[in-house]
Here is the input.
Amino acid sequence: MRNKGVGIKLGSYGLRAQQCSTLKTNLVELCRLEETSVLVRAQHLVQSPTELSYVRRPPAPADACLRALREVAGPGDITVDSTALERQIQGSKGHFLAASA
Here is the structure.
């Protein structure tokens, strides 16, 4: 790694200014840090077929929750009986996925 470039994404939520400064200080003799935010952002645009199929599949659990909420809540309700909602979501099989089937 000596004298090699190491990419760093500065425009991220995870890497704070203080952490970046510490990295630069500690790695100055080992390697050079290079700003690669644009490259990383471009890589995020490339998705595998598996990722695309996951993103495109229907949001069944969320839809099941909305259906259950509609069954339990009435027009103008600002509070819902959470026990009744839980029973509705769990369905007859006793678990959440039963409501999404």
Remarks:
- The chain has a mean pLDDT of 76.
- The chain is about 55% helix and 10% strand.
